[in-house]
Design goal:
The protein is mainly alpha-helical. It has five helices and no strands. It has helices at residues 8-19, 23-47, 52-61, 69-81, 83-94.
Length: 99
């Protein structure tokens, strides 16, 4: 058997013509395979949980906000003075999902 580069198109042309009617189906199958692979990888990535070391490292970098005690007292004093606002706070605490 002697293969030459110039004979390759002549030998491939009948094969291409034979399977030309399946191009759309092959394209749809390829797209379905790609989407399936993407869904599989996304599912894998959503199941990954961080290690305890990573959680501890992130917690060490977080700075905790500090609230001034005088500001808290002032807010509570203003809340006690204004009856209308106090009733709004109470209503919001009782039913947080109401409009």
């Amino acid at each position: 058997m002697n293969f030459e580069v110039k004979d390759i198109p002549k030998k491939i042309t009948p094969i291409i013509e034979k399977y030309k009617k399946y191009n759309v189906i092959a394209f749809i199958v390829c797209v379905a395979i790609v989407f399936g692979f993407l869904v599989f990888k996304i599912n894998q990535y959503t199941q990954i949980e961080p290690s305890e070391d990573a959680i501890a490292e992130e917690l060490n970098t977080v700075t905790r906000p500090k609230i001034d005690e005088k500001a808290i007292e002032k807010i509570q004093q203003l809340e006690d003075q204004n009856i209308e606002v106090k009733s709004l706070f109470e209503q919001a605490r009782d039913n947080p999902f109401s409009e």
